[in-house]
Amino acid sequence: MDAELDVMMRNAEGRYPSSEEARRAQEIAKTFDTRFATCQSLEAREAEIVRLTAERMLQKFPKFNERYLAREKTERDLTITLRYIAHAILRNDAEFLRDKLLYWMQGVFASKGFGETVKGTYEILKQVVATELPSRDAVEVNRYVDVCIQSCDRPQDRVQQAEVA
User: Fold this and answer.
1) 70-to-20, 43, 61 alpha-carbon distances in Å
2) Residue range 46-61, pLDDT digits in tens
3) In sequence order, what DSSP letters do the residues of 62-115 get, joined into one string?
4) Is 14 helix (H, G, I), strand (E, B) or coil?
5) Is residue 8 part of a domain?
6) pLDDT tens digits, 132-164
């Protein structure tokens, strides 16, 4: 559920929504079709986005591939990431992406010392998304890729989280 709508509905429990709450709920509902279309666009291009991102990542970090035979795992992780991004887009909720995927991934990758490689991969993903999706969809997806990039920074280095408005 849309994060804002979820909060609004919880706040309205036991009473009827106010005119302002109803108006805002209608505005949120109007954006769902656009968000859903973005997810469909992402789904249609997912395999190519994953393939291109993995290829470019392995070119940028050749020693990483030599040491870890990383192509299959990179493609798996990119696929998972894109699917969680799609769910976050549908929900209009960057916190969903952080809670359900990024905090866990951040811990796994940090424990293996992959932080810079992962961040570099997300930056490549952002470039590939910009070229492989229609402009409107790329902008929306990349707002969430920015959240992924930000998650790679150490908490003490974060000035502010990348937020999706």
Assistant:
1) 51, 23, 10
2) 999 999 999 999 999 8
3) HHHHHHH--HHHHHHHHHHHHHHHHHHHHHT-HHHHIIIIIHHHHHHHHHHT-H
4) coil
5) no
6) 999 999 999 999 999 999 998 855 344 334 444
Structure token pair of residue 77: 């992780």
Tell me if 148 is assigned to some domain: yes
98 φ, ψ to 5°?
-60, -50
State which residues form the domain around 41: 33-157
Report which DSSP code applies to 109: H
Enter the DSSP assignment of 157.
G
Question: For the chain, what is the domain count?
Answer: 1
**Domain CATH for 123:** 1.10.490.20
- Supply the DSSP symbol for 100: I
Q: Contact 49/125 with Cβ under 8 angstroms? A: yes
First to last CA, the chain: 15
Nearest to 124 by CA among 132, 113, 136: 132
Do 56 and 124 meet the contact criterion of CB atoms below 8 Å apart?
yes
75 in any annotated domain: yes
